[in-house]
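Onboarding guide, step 5: your first structure request.
Type a short instruction followed by the sequence, for example:

Predict the 3D structure of this protein.
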Amino acid sequence: MQRRRLGRTGHESSLAILGGAAFWDSSPEEAERGFRMALDAGVNHLDIAPQYGAAEDVIGPLIPSVRDRLFVGCKTMRKSPDGVRDQLETSLAKLRCDRFDLYQAHAVTDLDVLDERAGAIETMLSARDEGLTRFVGVTGHDLGAPSTHLEALRRWDLDTVMFPVYPRVWADEKYRADAEALLAECAQRDVGVMAIKAVAWRPWGDQQPTAGTWYQPFADEASVSRGVRFALSTSGVHAFCTPGDLGVLPLALRAAEAYVPMSHDEHRGALTAVGNDEVIFPLVEKARR
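The system replies with structure tokens like these:
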């Protein structure tokens, strides 16, 4: 699998980042199969969080044997400095790490949330100074994530951002303009950029979910490949997180292994192809698990 430098972190990250949400309700045996599948495909970067159900518990025991070749990114949604510190230490213990490579303020989606998390982010930056994490970043779903992350970069010296990049949301002119402004700032500051929701399709609506994701993902080879290629061909994006479903994971990994950049026309054409689909956001209205 190809690798790209993740901005100022200097890490040569695999194009696919293993999304820990896929292990939400996994047994230890299922988790090990998925984890080994990703490593065998060339993945060298894990993204995980306490909010991902059983993920930390089932993945933690698998990390020590590969820690020297795995970039470990974790997250917190805590607001208070003490709460952040407690959760950081708990996650370090569960994941058998002395320090994280990346610790992220998770689910920062609008300015109100950013303001609420100011003390938490300061605590994370202090943890970086202490050596408990090498880098600090911000993540977020929803339509307000790009503009909010841009403001976060203006307030703090952050190392990475993570936000949605998939064809249907990119077809929204305001979202795309906000995202492109963020990407330009990231390029100027050498901030690492990770995409989420690369294989998102639409909300579940009244349908019975057939995957572990809160939105309906594409689940056929061609569509997954298109989504992965679209995200990775978006200028400024360094890598994408695999979706939170073990059934779709092999498709996403194969798409990353076979990645060939889209031409400008293909990239624009992907927007047209999904023009009638419903956007999966706002999350609070459309999420379903």
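Each response can be followed by summary notes, for example: The chain has a mean pLDDT of 97.
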